[in-house]
Every structure is written in C-alpha cells, then in structure tokens.
Amino acid sequence: GKCERASAVTCGCPGTRSCPRGVPARLSPAITVLPLALAGCDSGFGQATARHLDSLGFRVFASVLDPRGPGAQELQRSCSARLTLLRMDLTKPEDIKSVLQHIQAHTNGTGLWGLVNNAGFNDIIADAELSPLGNFRTCMEVNFFGSLELTKGLLPLLRSAGGRIVTVSSPAGEQPHGTQGCGVGSPTGMHQLCSTAGSGMLPPLPVGTPMNVDFWKLQKEQLVARLPRELLQAYGEDYVEEINRQFIQFMKVAVEDLSAVVNSITDGLLAANPAVRYYPGQGLGLMYFIHRYLPYFVRDLFLKGLFINPKLPRALRPEHKDTKKP
Predict the structure, then answer these.
(1) What is the helix, strand, coil percentage profile of the chain, to 5?
(2) Contact criterion met (CB below 8 Å) for 138 and 183
(3) Which Pfam families would you find in this protein's record (predicted)?
(4) Pick from 48, 78, 61: which is nearest to 207 by CA?
(5) Within the chain, how many helices (H) and strands (E) appear?
(6) Which of 36, 83, 243, 249 has the smallest CB count inside 10 Å?
C-alpha cells in the first residue's frame, strides 16, 4: 500500500512509468530513512537491485546464500556501509528466523519500507515425469514456502511503515511449458498468493546473467544417470539432450541488460502510484496477451516456437509407434 508518512512525490528519477510531466512520479527522497530488505542478492536481479538501491541512499538488508561467496563479496565491495549482508537459505527455518531477528533489531523503530522477494531456485530442465520429487520439494521450499515465511515475519515492520512488497517471479507461473516440470508449481503459487495480497509482481523475460554451462550439462548428465532404464527408453536420451541444449541456447541469447527489471523493482518500491504488475523486457506483454486471450492451440504453438524445438519423447514419435504395430 501507499505510505501515508511519505505522501509527497518528486519527479526525475529513472523508471518504467511516467507522470504527466513525462517522468516517473516518485515518493519524497525522505523515504530513504526507511530500510529495505532484499532476498536473493548473490547475483542477477537481486545483486543489481541491491546495488542500485544502495546508490539511492537506502539502508539495505541483502540476503545471500554465502556472505563469503564471490557474488556477495562483489556486492559488499561495490556498496556503501549502509548495506548489510545476511546469510539466508530459504530451505532452513533457522536462517529465516535469524534474518528476521536481525532486521527487527536494527530497524530502530522505523519499520521497513520494502521487501523484495527475489530468491529463486530451479536446477533441472525436464518433464515432470523425469524430474526427481526432491527437486519439486526444493523448488516449493525456496520459491514459495520460504518466501512466504519471510514475508509473514516482516509484515509487522512493513505495516508500521506503510511499506510495500515486490515479488520477482517466473513467467512459468502463468505460461507453463512441459519441460519446466519442477519450475511451474512454485511461481503459480506465488502468483496467486500475491494476487490475494495486492503486492507487486514482476515476471521478467530471461536475462543473460552469467550462466555456468558446465553446471547445466552436469545436471543433465546426473538426471540421465538416475533415470530408470524403462523411463529413459520411453523418452529417449536424445530428447533430454535436446531440451537441455535448447535451454542453454535460449539463455545464451537472452537480454544482457538488467536495467529493465531493476527499474521495475525500483518503481514498485518508490512510485507514488505503483502498478500491481510489471512486465519488464521487450515482448513480455505480447507473451501475456497471447496466453490470456488467444486459443490454447495458438498459445501452445507460441511457447513451443519460443522456448524449445518441438522434439517429441521417443514413445510418442510416429516411427516408434509404427514399430509397435503387429
């Protein structure tokens, strides 16, 4: 909701939406006396946003998996002393409790102006039948239950300051594809939860943050090695190879500029009249239009053409069916 204690607005900050004067209408700079909390700042959107908000003068509590890791250390070096790194693994309730206690103890009665839920996890590209159940559980723990626990714990501080919640989610929550087996349940849950709470949502397009190709190849190899022989024969190892190759290729050509997402998060926190949802990234609005308003077969063709070569699992290929005929 809007903050009654800082209702004055100012114009001139870079952002994604415009006031009648042609630039975004922003809350008074005095709002920077209130701290912000960001989850998932080791790299990518979270790291870039934490750095940007620090440069605007905010006191930032940035959670990372490992404060001694290269991403966390880079963030610390590039920011002022106002930024505090906090270790948090969203699958560990004790980590969440420790972060909540630290933030509560260091807000000095001011409350919290904003929470950015950015932490996300998905380490496998495969159909649901191929994906280990443990991966589903981890995705839900990090992307849904962990974020929910953190949000619920910070709500009293957010309420006292009239603050805001911005959640970065995946388009897979509303535009699922067959090879995103593990990655669709948690963003769908977050989409619906945020819809009930009215908090801002950002389902960004893929952005070319540094990607470890060797990591994804190793994940694919481990998946193939774990699959039961009958299941691997039904899908075909070439199918698993192809969907992972397409994913890596898709990420290699993704947008490298993080500014659209960073500006949208900033706008959600600081705009006098923030949008309920932001769609940062060229063409993302078209994707949602196609998904919401066009027939299913059009949506299916669009997703197949955008995300993956429509290679069929072995058991569904015409030549395989022909060999099974008497």
Answers:
(1) 50, 10, 35
(2) no
(3) adh_short
(4) 48
(5) 13, 8
(6) 249
Torsion of CA 275, 277, 282, 286, to 10 degrees: -120
Q: What phi, psi does 216 have (nearest 5°)?
A: -70, -35
Query: What is the rounded distance in angstroms from the CA atom of residue 283 to the CA atom of residue 97?
Result: 39
- What distance in Å separates the CA atoms of residue 16 and residue 13, rounded to the nearest whole number? 10
Q: Is 19 helix (H, G, I), strand (E, B) or coil?
A: coil
The structural domains of the chain, with segments of one domain joined by +, span: 4-208+256-281, 210-253
**How buried is 302 (Cβ within 10 angstroms: 0-12 exposed, 13-18 middle, 19+ buried)?**
middle
CA-based nearest residue to 45, from 205, 163, 154? 205
Round to whole Å and give the CA distance between 307 and 291.
14
CB 12 within 8 A of CB 23: yes
Query: Which residues, in sequence order, are CB contacts of 199 under 8 Å at separation 6+?
Result: 164, 165, 166, 167
The residue assigned the tokens 């994940």 is 219
Q: Are residues 186 and 169 in contact, defined by beta-carbon separation less than 8 angstroms?
A: no
Instruction: Considering only the C-alpha atoms of the chain, give the largest distance between any 2 of them, rounded to a whole number of Å.
Output: 78
Tens of pLDDT along the chain (326 residues) come to 323 222 222 223 333 343 333 345 666 666 777 899 999 999 888 999 999 999 999 999 999 999 999 999 999 999 999 999 999 999 999 999 999 999 999 997 889 999 999 877 788 888 889 988 998 898 889 888 999 999 999 999 999 999 999 988 776 656 666 667 676 767 667 777 777 665 545 554 444 444 567 788 888 999 999 999 999 999 999 999 988 888 877 776 666 778 888 999 999 999 888 888 887 766 666 776 777 777 877 777 776 666 555 678 888 888 766 555 55
CATH fold of 4-208+256-281: Rossmann fold (3.40.50)
Residue 72 belongs to what H/E stretch? helix 70-78
The letter for the amino acid at 167 is T
259 contact partners, CB below 8 Å, separation of at least 6: none
